[in-house]
């Protein structure tokens, strides 16, 4: 879906992948406060988000622990190799 702070996702715990106009994954992140709140925070840095073209959202169950959410974010980040993440959550070998 196109990048926008007005995305209607009801899950508060999500992992998201942001892609640029080239189709490459630029950023992998997660939130426990909901997509709208988190993307509004990202939009405070226009230079960071100017080339964000689309987003893929992976909703997790409401009862998902923050530790598990970060583990999922780390595994997805490891798999797709986003170009702009400064850091991803560490995952233990065998997790």
Describe what is shown at a glance.
This protein is α+β, with helices and mostly antiparallel strands.
The spatial strand order of the largest sheet comes to 2-1-3
Separation of the first and last Cα atoms: 30 Å
Main pleated-sheet profile: 3 strands, antiparallel
Report strand %: 15-25%
Number of domains: 1
How many E-type strands?
3
What order do the helices and strands follow?
Answer: EEHHEH
**Helical segment count:** 3
By helix and strand content, what is the structural category? alpha+beta
Provide the low-confidence segments as ranges. Answer: none
Quaternary state reads single chain
Name the helicity range: 25-40%
The overall average pLDDT, rounded, is 85
Gyration radius, to the nearest Å? 13 Å
Choose one word for the global shape.
globular
Protein name: GIY-YIG domain-containing protein
Organism: Micromonospora zingiberis
């Amino acid at each position: 879906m196109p990048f926008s702070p007005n995305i209607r996702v009801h899950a508060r715990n999500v992992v998201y992948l942001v892609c640029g106009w080239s189709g490459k994954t630029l950023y992998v992140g997660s939130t426990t406060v909901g997509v709208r709140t988190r993307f509004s925070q990202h939009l405070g840095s226009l230079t960071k988000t100017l080339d964000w073209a689309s987003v893929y959202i992976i909703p997790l169950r409401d009862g998902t622990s923050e530790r598990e959410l970060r583990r999922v974010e780390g595994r997805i980040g490891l798999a797709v190799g986003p170009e702009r993440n400064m850091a991803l959550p560490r995952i233990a070998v065998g997790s």
